[in-house]
Amino acid sequence: MRNETIVVAGASLAGLRGAEALRQRGFAGRLILVGDEPYLPYDRPPLSKHVLTGEIAPGATTLPGVRGLDAEWRLGTPVSGLDRAGRALLLADGGRLGFDRLLIATGARARPWPNADEARLSGIHTLRGRDDAAALASGLAARPARVLILGAGFIGCEAASSIRALGLPVTVVDPGPAPLARTLGHVVGSFVAGRMQAAGVDYRPGTRVTHLEGDGAGRVRRARLAGGGAIDADLVVVALGAVRNTDWLAGTGLAANAGGVSCDGACRVLDAAGRPEAAIFAAGDVARWPHPLYGGRPVALEHWGNAVAQGAHAARAMLDGPEAAGAYAELPAFWSSQFGLNIKSLGLTEGADAVAIAQGNPRTGRFLAVYGRAGRTLAAVSVNAGRWLPAYEAPIRAAAPFPPITGGADQPALKPVPPGLPAPRAA
Questions:
Q1: Which of 181, 279, 285, 407 minimizes the number of CB atoms within 10 Å of its CB?
Q2: Domains assigned to the chain
Q3: Helix 13-24 crosses helix 304-320 at what angle (to 10 degrees)?
Q4: Reductase C-terminal domain: from which residue to which, for each copy (predicted)?
Protein backbone atom coordinates (compact mmCIF):
# COMPACT_ATOMS: atom_id res chain seq x y z
CA MET A 1 0.00 0.00 0.00
CA ARG A 2 3.03 2.29 -0.10
CA ASN A 3 1.81 4.18 -3.15
CA GLU A 4 -1.88 4.18 -2.28
CA THR A 5 -3.93 7.21 -1.27
CA ILE A 6 -6.24 7.19 1.74
CA VAL A 7 -8.65 10.07 2.14
CA VAL A 8 -10.36 10.84 5.45
CA ALA A 9 -13.64 12.75 5.07
CA GLY A 10 -13.96 14.56 8.38
CA ALA A 11 -11.16 16.25 10.32
CA SER A 12 -12.41 15.81 13.86
CA LEU A 13 -11.63 13.26 16.58
CA ALA A 14 -12.53 10.01 14.78
CA GLY A 15 -10.86 11.11 11.55
CA LEU A 16 -7.72 12.22 13.36
CA ARG A 17 -7.39 9.06 15.45
CA GLY A 18 -8.01 6.95 12.37
CA ALA A 19 -5.28 8.81 10.47
CA GLU A 20 -2.88 8.47 13.39
CA ALA A 21 -3.55 4.75 13.60
CA LEU A 22 -2.86 4.35 9.88
CA ARG A 23 0.58 5.89 10.30
CA GLN A 24 1.29 3.95 13.48
CA ARG A 25 0.44 0.71 11.70
CA GLY A 26 2.88 1.45 8.91
CA PHE A 27 0.87 3.11 6.16
CA ALA A 28 3.39 5.21 4.21
CA GLY A 29 1.25 6.36 1.29
CA ARG A 30 -0.53 9.64 0.71
CA LEU A 31 -2.91 10.60 3.54
CA ILE A 32 -5.39 13.47 3.12
CA LEU A 33 -7.81 14.81 5.75
CA VAL A 34 -10.74 16.93 4.61
CA GLY A 35 -12.66 19.09 7.08
CA ASP A 36 -15.54 21.52 6.66
CA GLU A 37 -14.25 23.77 9.45
CA PRO A 38 -11.11 25.89 8.98
CA TYR A 39 -9.54 24.51 12.17
CA LEU A 40 -7.26 21.61 12.95
CA PRO A 41 -9.05 18.89 14.94
CA TYR A 42 -10.08 20.12 18.38
CA ASP A 43 -11.57 18.69 21.56
CA ARG A 44 -15.33 19.17 21.86
CA PRO A 45 -16.09 18.34 25.54
CA PRO A 46 -14.66 21.67 26.82
CA LEU A 47 -16.95 23.66 24.53
CA SER A 48 -20.02 23.28 26.77
CA LYS A 49 -17.99 23.75 29.93
CA HIS A 50 -14.70 25.66 30.20
CA VAL A 51 -15.10 27.61 26.95
CA LEU A 52 -18.50 28.97 28.01
CA THR A 53 -17.19 30.03 31.41
CA GLY A 54 -14.16 31.70 29.86
CA GLU A 55 -11.61 29.37 31.49
CA ILE A 56 -10.38 28.15 28.09
CA ALA A 57 -10.31 30.11 24.83
CA PRO A 58 -12.00 28.37 21.87
CA GLY A 59 -8.67 28.32 20.01
CA ALA A 60 -6.96 26.50 22.88
CA THR A 61 -8.90 23.27 22.29
CA THR A 62 -6.74 21.85 19.47
CA LEU A 63 -6.09 18.17 20.05
CA PRO A 64 -2.51 17.14 20.91
CA GLY A 65 -0.34 15.53 18.27
CA VAL A 66 -2.14 17.12 15.33
CA ARG A 67 0.81 19.02 13.96
CA GLY A 68 3.06 15.99 13.98
CA LEU A 69 0.84 13.93 11.69
CA ASP A 70 2.34 13.32 8.27
CA ALA A 71 -0.75 14.25 6.29
CA GLU A 72 -2.20 16.78 3.88
CA TRP A 73 -4.95 18.98 5.26
CA ARG A 74 -7.88 20.33 3.26
CA LEU A 75 -9.61 22.46 5.89
CA GLY A 76 -12.58 24.78 5.46
CA THR A 77 -13.69 22.59 2.55
CA PRO A 78 -16.96 20.68 2.99
CA VAL A 79 -17.49 17.45 1.10
CA SER A 80 -20.35 17.54 -1.39
CA GLY A 81 -20.56 14.06 -2.84
CA LEU A 82 -18.96 10.73 -3.61
CA ASP A 83 -18.12 9.12 -6.93
CA ARG A 84 -18.08 5.47 -5.89
CA ALA A 85 -17.29 4.06 -9.31
CA GLY A 86 -14.48 6.54 -9.86
CA ARG A 87 -13.26 6.32 -6.26
CA ALA A 88 -13.24 10.05 -5.74
CA LEU A 89 -14.43 12.37 -3.00
CA LEU A 90 -16.19 15.46 -4.33
CA LEU A 91 -15.62 18.80 -2.61
CA ALA A 92 -17.88 21.83 -2.31
CA ASP A 93 -15.22 24.02 -3.93
CA GLY A 94 -15.40 21.90 -7.09
CA GLY A 95 -12.36 19.82 -6.22
CA ARG A 96 -12.08 16.09 -6.59
CA LEU A 97 -9.86 13.82 -4.51
CA GLY A 98 -9.15 10.36 -5.84
CA PHE A 99 -8.63 7.61 -3.28
CA ASP A 100 -7.80 3.95 -2.96
CA ARG A 101 -9.53 3.82 0.41
CA LEU A 102 -11.87 6.25 2.12
CA LEU A 103 -12.66 6.75 5.80
CA ILE A 104 -15.97 8.54 6.39
CA ALA A 105 -15.83 10.46 9.68
CA THR A 106 -18.06 13.45 8.96
CA GLY A 107 -19.65 13.31 12.41
CA ALA A 108 -22.83 15.18 13.28
CA ARG A 109 -24.11 18.72 13.55
CA ALA A 110 -26.44 20.38 16.02
CA ARG A 111 -30.12 19.94 15.26
CA PRO A 112 -31.43 23.45 14.52
CA TRP A 113 -34.68 25.02 15.66
CA PRO A 114 -37.19 23.63 13.13
CA ASN A 115 -38.62 26.99 12.02
CA ALA A 116 -35.89 28.48 9.84
CA ASP A 117 -37.19 32.06 10.08
CA GLU A 118 -37.29 31.89 13.88
CA ALA A 119 -33.87 30.20 13.98
CA ARG A 120 -32.37 33.25 12.26
CA LEU A 121 -33.33 35.58 15.11
CA SER A 122 -30.35 37.17 16.81
CA GLY A 123 -29.65 35.60 20.19
CA ILE A 124 -30.50 32.02 19.19
CA HIS A 125 -27.58 29.61 19.47
CA THR A 126 -26.74 25.97 18.98
CA LEU A 127 -23.69 24.33 20.56
CA ARG A 128 -21.71 21.76 18.67
CA GLY A 129 -18.56 23.28 17.18
CA ARG A 130 -15.86 25.75 18.08
CA ASP A 131 -17.57 28.69 16.36
CA ASP A 132 -20.83 27.85 18.14
CA ALA A 133 -19.10 27.95 21.52
CA ALA A 134 -17.30 31.22 20.71
CA ALA A 135 -20.55 32.89 19.61
CA LEU A 136 -22.44 31.65 22.67
CA ALA A 137 -19.64 32.73 25.03
CA SER A 138 -19.74 36.19 23.46
CA GLY A 139 -23.51 36.35 23.91
CA LEU A 140 -23.19 35.34 27.56
CA ALA A 141 -20.51 37.98 28.13
CA ALA A 142 -23.17 40.59 27.31
CA ARG A 143 -25.01 39.45 30.48
CA PRO A 144 -28.44 38.59 29.07
CA ALA A 145 -31.36 39.08 31.44
CA ARG A 146 -32.60 35.50 30.95
CA VAL A 147 -31.14 32.50 29.15
CA LEU A 148 -33.55 29.85 27.90
CA ILE A 149 -32.26 26.36 27.07
CA LEU A 150 -34.45 24.13 24.92
CA GLY A 151 -33.65 20.54 25.81
CA ALA A 152 -32.40 18.76 28.93
CA GLY A 153 -30.02 16.29 27.34
CA PHE A 154 -26.30 16.32 28.09
CA ILE A 155 -25.49 19.45 26.09
CA GLY A 156 -28.46 21.34 27.51
CA CYS A 157 -27.62 20.37 31.09
CA GLU A 158 -23.89 21.06 30.75
CA ALA A 159 -24.61 24.44 29.20
CA ALA A 160 -27.06 25.25 32.01
CA SER A 161 -24.42 24.36 34.59
CA SER A 162 -21.81 26.57 32.93
CA ILE A 163 -24.21 29.48 32.54
CA ARG A 164 -25.29 29.29 36.17
CA ALA A 165 -21.60 29.34 37.10
CA LEU A 166 -21.49 32.74 35.40
CA GLY A 167 -24.30 33.92 37.65
CA LEU A 168 -26.87 34.28 34.88
CA PRO A 169 -30.57 33.36 35.21
CA VAL A 170 -31.32 30.13 33.32
CA THR A 171 -34.57 28.38 32.42
CA VAL A 172 -34.44 24.85 30.99
CA VAL A 173 -37.51 23.41 29.28
CA ASP A 174 -37.89 19.85 28.04
CA PRO A 175 -40.90 17.71 27.09
CA GLY A 176 -39.48 14.77 29.05
CA PRO A 177 -40.15 13.97 32.70
CA ALA A 178 -36.58 14.58 33.94
CA PRO A 179 -33.18 15.77 32.73
CA LEU A 180 -31.24 13.13 30.78
CA ALA A 181 -34.30 10.87 30.92
CA ARG A 182 -33.73 9.46 27.44
CA THR A 183 -30.34 8.10 28.47
CA LEU A 184 -30.49 7.65 32.25
CA GLY A 185 -34.22 7.30 32.86
CA HIS A 186 -36.50 9.07 35.29
CA VAL A 187 -35.01 7.52 38.44
CA VAL A 188 -31.49 8.89 37.98
CA GLY A 189 -32.70 11.90 36.02
CA SER A 190 -34.82 13.04 38.96
CA PHE A 191 -31.68 13.20 41.09
CA VAL A 192 -30.06 15.43 38.45
CA ALA A 193 -33.18 17.61 38.42
CA GLY A 194 -32.75 18.22 42.14
CA ARG A 195 -29.17 19.35 41.60
CA MET A 196 -30.23 21.66 38.78
CA GLN A 197 -32.87 23.29 40.90
CA ALA A 198 -30.51 23.58 43.88
CA ALA A 199 -28.12 25.47 41.58
CA GLY A 200 -30.88 27.98 40.80
CA VAL A 201 -32.03 26.68 37.42
CA ASP A 202 -35.70 27.25 36.61
CA TYR A 203 -36.30 23.71 35.34
CA ARG A 204 -39.60 22.94 33.63
CA PRO A 205 -40.15 19.28 32.69
CA GLY A 206 -43.05 18.25 30.50
CA THR A 207 -42.90 21.59 28.70
CA ARG A 208 -42.81 22.09 24.96
CA VAL A 209 -41.98 25.31 23.10
CA THR A 210 -44.09 25.84 19.98
CA HIS A 211 -42.40 28.92 18.55
CA LEU A 212 -39.94 31.70 19.25
CA GLU A 213 -40.78 35.39 18.93
CA GLY A 214 -38.60 38.38 18.12
CA ASP A 215 -38.79 41.98 19.27
CA GLY A 216 -39.42 43.49 15.85
CA ALA A 217 -35.74 44.32 15.42
CA GLY A 218 -34.69 40.75 14.71
CA ARG A 219 -33.72 39.67 18.22
CA VAL A 220 -35.34 36.84 20.18
CA ARG A 221 -37.48 38.00 23.10
CA ARG A 222 -39.73 35.11 24.21
CA ALA A 223 -40.79 31.53 23.67
CA ARG A 224 -44.42 30.51 23.38
CA LEU A 225 -45.42 27.28 25.13
CA ALA A 226 -47.79 24.52 24.12
CA GLY A 227 -51.00 24.92 26.08
CA GLY A 228 -50.46 28.66 26.54
CA GLY A 229 -48.00 30.83 28.38
CA ALA A 230 -44.62 32.23 27.44
CA ILE A 231 -41.08 32.59 28.76
CA ASP A 232 -39.21 35.84 28.19
CA ALA A 233 -35.57 35.38 27.18
CA ASP A 234 -33.01 37.39 25.26
CA LEU A 235 -30.67 34.46 24.64
CA VAL A 236 -31.82 30.96 23.64
CA VAL A 237 -29.71 27.80 23.41
CA VAL A 238 -31.27 25.17 21.15
CA ALA A 239 -30.09 21.80 22.54
CA LEU A 240 -32.34 19.38 20.66
CA GLY A 241 -29.78 16.74 19.78
CA ALA A 242 -27.72 16.15 16.67
CA VAL A 243 -28.13 15.36 12.97
CA ARG A 244 -25.61 12.98 11.45
CA ASN A 245 -23.78 14.39 8.44
CA THR A 246 -24.86 11.97 5.72
CA ASP A 247 -26.64 14.32 3.28
CA TRP A 248 -23.66 14.34 0.93
CA LEU A 249 -24.03 10.58 0.41
CA ALA A 250 -27.50 10.83 -1.14
CA GLY A 251 -27.71 9.01 -4.45
CA THR A 252 -24.51 7.01 -3.90
CA GLY A 253 -26.25 3.69 -3.26
CA LEU A 254 -24.75 3.43 0.21
CA ALA A 255 -26.90 2.66 3.25
CA ALA A 256 -26.86 6.14 4.73
CA ASN A 257 -29.68 8.21 6.18
CA ALA A 258 -30.46 10.46 9.13
CA GLY A 259 -29.57 7.60 11.49
CA GLY A 260 -26.02 7.36 10.18
CA VAL A 261 -23.91 5.38 7.73
CA SER A 262 -24.47 1.64 8.09
CA CYS A 263 -21.33 -0.48 8.52
CA ASP A 264 -20.43 -4.07 9.24
CA GLY A 265 -18.41 -5.10 12.28
CA ALA A 266 -15.16 -4.23 10.52
CA CYS A 267 -16.36 -0.64 9.90
CA ARG A 268 -16.84 -1.29 6.16
CA VAL A 269 -19.70 0.80 4.81
CA LEU A 270 -22.66 -1.17 3.47
CA ASP A 271 -24.52 -0.51 0.26
CA ALA A 272 -28.30 -0.36 0.06
CA ALA A 273 -28.42 -4.16 -0.37
CA GLY A 274 -26.37 -4.72 2.78
CA ARG A 275 -23.14 -5.64 1.01
CA PRO A 276 -19.83 -4.24 2.34
CA GLU A 277 -17.95 -1.75 0.20
CA ALA A 278 -14.34 -3.00 0.29
CA ALA A 279 -12.72 0.43 -0.06
CA ILE A 280 -14.98 2.61 2.13
CA PHE A 281 -15.05 2.63 5.92
CA ALA A 282 -16.74 4.78 8.57
CA ALA A 283 -16.10 5.70 12.20
CA GLY A 284 -17.28 8.05 14.94
CA ASP A 285 -20.59 9.85 15.36
CA VAL A 286 -21.66 9.22 11.77
CA ALA A 287 -21.23 5.43 11.88
CA ARG A 288 -23.95 2.89 12.71
CA TRP A 289 -22.88 -0.71 13.21
CA PRO A 290 -24.12 -4.02 14.72
CA HIS A 291 -22.93 -4.23 18.31
CA PRO A 292 -22.20 -7.83 19.36
CA LEU A 293 -22.87 -7.05 23.04
CA TYR A 294 -26.42 -5.97 22.25
CA GLY A 295 -27.67 -8.75 20.02
CA GLY A 296 -26.11 -7.29 16.89
CA ARG A 297 -28.61 -4.44 16.78
CA PRO A 298 -27.37 -1.31 14.98
CA VAL A 299 -26.08 1.39 17.28
CA ALA A 300 -24.71 4.87 16.61
CA LEU A 301 -22.85 6.63 19.41
CA GLU A 302 -21.85 10.24 19.96
CA HIS A 303 -19.22 9.36 22.54
CA TRP A 304 -15.65 10.68 22.73
CA GLY A 305 -14.21 7.26 23.54
CA ASN A 306 -16.08 5.59 20.69
CA ALA A 307 -14.68 8.06 18.16
CA VAL A 308 -11.14 7.26 19.34
CA ALA A 309 -11.54 3.48 19.41
CA GLN A 310 -13.59 3.12 16.23
CA GLY A 311 -11.25 5.34 14.23
CA ALA A 312 -8.37 3.08 15.21
CA HIS A 313 -10.39 -0.07 14.46
CA ALA A 314 -11.30 1.18 11.01
CA ALA A 315 -7.60 1.86 10.32
CA ARG A 316 -6.69 -1.68 11.29
CA ALA A 317 -9.41 -3.12 9.07
CA MET A 318 -8.18 -0.96 6.17
CA LEU A 319 -4.61 -2.17 6.47
CA ASP A 320 -4.89 -5.72 7.81
CA GLY A 321 -8.26 -6.75 6.45
CA PRO A 322 -11.65 -7.25 8.11
CA GLU A 323 -10.89 -10.77 9.34
CA ALA A 324 -7.75 -9.68 11.15
CA ALA A 325 -9.50 -6.66 12.63
CA GLY A 326 -12.47 -8.67 13.85
CA ALA A 327 -15.81 -7.26 14.95
CA TYR A 328 -15.73 -3.85 16.62
CA ALA A 329 -17.04 -4.43 20.14
CA GLU A 330 -15.88 -1.47 22.23
CA LEU A 331 -18.03 -1.13 25.33
CA PRO A 332 -19.92 2.18 25.07
CA ALA A 333 -18.75 4.67 27.68
CA PHE A 334 -19.25 8.37 28.29
CA TRP A 335 -18.87 10.99 30.98
CA SER A 336 -20.37 14.37 31.82
CA SER A 337 -19.58 17.10 34.36
CA GLN A 338 -22.44 19.33 35.49
CA PHE A 339 -23.70 20.97 38.70
CA GLY A 340 -20.82 19.49 40.72
CA LEU A 341 -21.62 15.99 39.45
CA ASN A 342 -19.22 13.68 37.67
CA ILE A 343 -21.41 11.26 35.72
CA LYS A 344 -19.85 8.22 34.06
CA SER A 345 -21.49 5.38 32.19
CA LEU A 346 -20.63 1.94 30.81
CA GLY A 347 -22.90 0.10 28.40
CA LEU A 348 -26.21 1.11 26.84
CA THR A 349 -29.28 1.67 28.97
CA GLU A 350 -31.69 1.60 26.02
CA GLY A 351 -34.33 -1.07 26.49
CA ALA A 352 -33.63 -1.57 30.21
CA ASP A 353 -36.66 -2.67 32.22
CA ALA A 354 -35.09 -2.30 35.68
CA VAL A 355 -32.59 -0.18 37.58
CA ALA A 356 -31.14 -0.61 41.06
CA ILE A 357 -28.94 1.59 43.22
CA ALA A 358 -26.08 -0.87 43.70
CA GLN A 359 -23.60 1.30 45.57
CA GLY A 360 -23.89 4.46 47.65
CA ASN A 361 -27.04 6.51 48.05
CA PRO A 362 -28.49 9.42 46.05
CA ARG A 363 -29.12 11.27 49.32
CA THR A 364 -25.35 11.52 49.83
CA GLY A 365 -24.72 12.58 46.21
CA ARG A 366 -22.54 9.51 45.55
CA PHE A 367 -24.02 6.36 44.05
CA LEU A 368 -23.94 3.81 41.24
CA ALA A 369 -27.02 2.61 39.38
CA VAL A 370 -27.04 -0.64 37.40
CA TYR A 371 -29.52 -1.33 34.60
CA GLY A 372 -30.92 -4.66 33.46
CA ARG A 373 -33.24 -6.17 30.90
CA ALA A 374 -35.01 -9.52 31.18
CA GLY A 375 -32.79 -10.45 34.12
CA ARG A 376 -29.49 -9.57 32.41
CA THR A 377 -27.13 -6.68 33.06
CA LEU A 378 -26.98 -3.96 30.38
CA ALA A 379 -25.24 -0.90 31.81
CA ALA A 380 -24.05 0.99 34.88
CA VAL A 381 -23.96 4.70 35.67
CA SER A 382 -21.91 6.27 38.45
CA VAL A 383 -22.51 9.70 39.97
CA ASN A 384 -19.50 11.05 41.88
CA ALA A 385 -18.57 7.39 42.38
CA GLY A 386 -16.35 6.42 39.48
CA ARG A 387 -14.21 4.08 41.57
CA TRP A 388 -17.09 1.60 41.63
CA LEU A 389 -17.67 1.59 37.88
CA PRO A 390 -14.81 -0.65 36.62
CA ALA A 391 -16.15 -3.60 38.61
CA TYR A 392 -19.22 -3.62 36.36
CA GLU A 393 -17.40 -3.82 33.01
CA ALA A 394 -17.03 -7.61 32.97
CA PRO A 395 -20.65 -8.27 34.06
CA ILE A 396 -21.93 -5.94 31.34
CA ARG A 397 -19.80 -7.63 28.69
CA ALA A 398 -20.98 -11.05 29.85
CA ALA A 399 -24.65 -10.00 30.19
CA ALA A 400 -24.44 -11.36 33.71
CA PRO A 401 -27.59 -11.94 35.77
CA PHE A 402 -29.07 -8.70 37.06
CA PRO A 403 -28.05 -7.30 39.47
CA PRO A 404 -24.54 -8.67 38.90
CA ILE A 405 -22.81 -7.81 42.19
CA THR A 406 -24.55 -8.56 45.46
CA GLY A 407 -23.63 -9.07 49.08
CA GLY A 408 -21.04 -6.31 49.33
CA ALA A 409 -20.43 -5.00 52.83
CA ASP A 410 -21.04 -1.43 51.71
CA GLN A 411 -24.00 -2.14 49.45
CA PRO A 412 -27.51 -0.90 50.13
CA ALA A 413 -30.44 -3.27 49.93
CA LEU A 414 -30.97 -3.85 46.21
CA LYS A 415 -34.48 -2.86 45.15
CA PRO A 416 -34.85 -2.93 41.36
CA VAL A 417 -37.51 -0.57 40.01
CA PRO A 418 -38.55 0.50 36.49
CA PRO A 419 -35.93 2.98 35.23
CA GLY A 420 -38.36 5.37 33.55
CA LEU A 421 -36.69 5.18 30.16
CA PRO A 422 -38.56 5.97 26.95
CA ALA A 423 -39.46 3.16 24.56
CA PRO A 424 -36.50 2.14 22.37
CA ARG A 425 -36.25 4.06 19.12
CA ALA A 426 -36.42 2.27 15.79
CA ALA A 427 -33.02 1.58 14.24
A1: 407
A2: 5-109+243-325 (3.50.50.60), 112-240 (3.50.50.60), 340-427 (3.30.390.30)
A3: 40
A4: 334-404
